[in-house]
């Protein structure tokens, strides 16, 4: 939950997803029934019947949870680096009271708290539903975790679905393949694919989960025609990718993006480039063919990705899941046209992302910008000026945040507002986190760092014990969660008792500031994003 550590300088156009990772270091009659009474030593259970078999989850005070539900076969053995395959039905009652394993991943982000073991067998999802949901056809939130496509898990407390389910909806978190297991592209993999594509297995997992939701969510009391997808960071990038993909059209009606998009400086790589990276990795492993590569144990393969010289694996314009670049798809209006609620945090990366360990003086700032941008430095300094210490801190933070993830997110909202017909609601989350417990006194944050908004938006402050939350924090969470819940239910965040949130228009850009006193204001940052656009094209 803490701020992302200080980041080294990164060129805007070069290896975008490696940059993102460096800057950061989801046939029978349906029934839902509760059984038993809560008492000492007794766990209240709930059951649901699916076409694959019966699930037995748990009930905690009006919310039934079903954890570790398989939505595809384990992607192991010969199914490694293949599209997710349908679940094999089970006999009897399957316990669904424990989170399924998280995807294979290194431990790279100190703010992630896992409640599950790790395994290549990871394609599981979790459902939270009100006990009285049966037959109500409630709206549905499907949430994808972040982590740079190399880490993350649906079991994290900050993603817990119970609080949102108490707002009158069904909530799901979805595990998907990560790193080399989820995003390796190779000529041999492309050749064996019936779609002549490779590299986006993690995104295909998410699509399979959305198809599972369409087919099964009514059993939990959800409406398959009222699905909203959401996510943060790589999860937000995933939401953007699902909007762009023709595969997922019709599987959701709304989208929530928190800091991330597969556009601008975070655009997916062309297939040939991803295949070249995959070939280089295969050479590092010593495997001579796919059979030998698939035979390498998962732990060993993961360790190989941490060797010096190993490439970073991320999204690809594969010709199948993404038939074109997302920018081409959105520019042509070919994306799924749904209401979009999206935004960024006020200090995704603070000024150290530009200055490193240097003091925020005008001289140091000018030197850093000149080193990054060369002949284009005057244009950058005009839009991101730094004449005083305070101005340097403000401009360097904004520039670092744009280079990291804010610009790509703006690009998504801008294109959707330009080519789509449904409303776009833009926010900036600006609530300053309280100090970490045990942190030295006097530490002052520049703004809200990357990922800070997650427990506020999903109503999970009480599950995060590393901060001394204040009344202001709880007030911010109440407002933000209500906005999100209203959007999931109606496609519009506005509701009774909430300050008005106007839709974004490129001709008159409006932005909602989300803190303990949320308010709308005219956006004044268009020039900086237009500059980013120009720099990204060069």
Structure description:
The protein is α/β, with parallel strands linked by helices and 538 residues long. It has a single domain, classed as Alpha/Beta hydrolase fold, catalytic domain (Rossmann fold), CATH 3.40.50.1820. Helices cover 33% and strands 17% of the residues. The chain has helices at 16-24, 162-165, 179-183, 187-192, 201-216, 234-244, 271-285, 290-295, 298-305, 326-331, 352-355, 362-373, 377-383, 389-419, 454-457, 471-490, 526-537, and strands spanning 32-35, 45-50, 53-60, 63-70, 93-95, 124-130, 138-144, 170-174, 222-232, 254-258, 269-270, 316-317, 340-345, 424-429, 510-514, 519-522. Strands 1, 2, 3, 4, 5, 6, 7, 8, 9, 10, 13, 14, 15 and 16 form a 14-stranded mixed sheet that branches. It is globular and about 70 Å long. 52% of the residues are buried. Mean pLDDT is 92; it is low at 1-14 and 25-40.
Average pLDDT number: 92
Give the CA-CA distance, first to last residue.
35 Å
Query: Superfamily at the CATH H level?
Result: Alpha/Beta hydrolase fold, catalytic domain
Helix content: 25-40%
Q: State which percent range the strand residues make up.
A: 15-25%
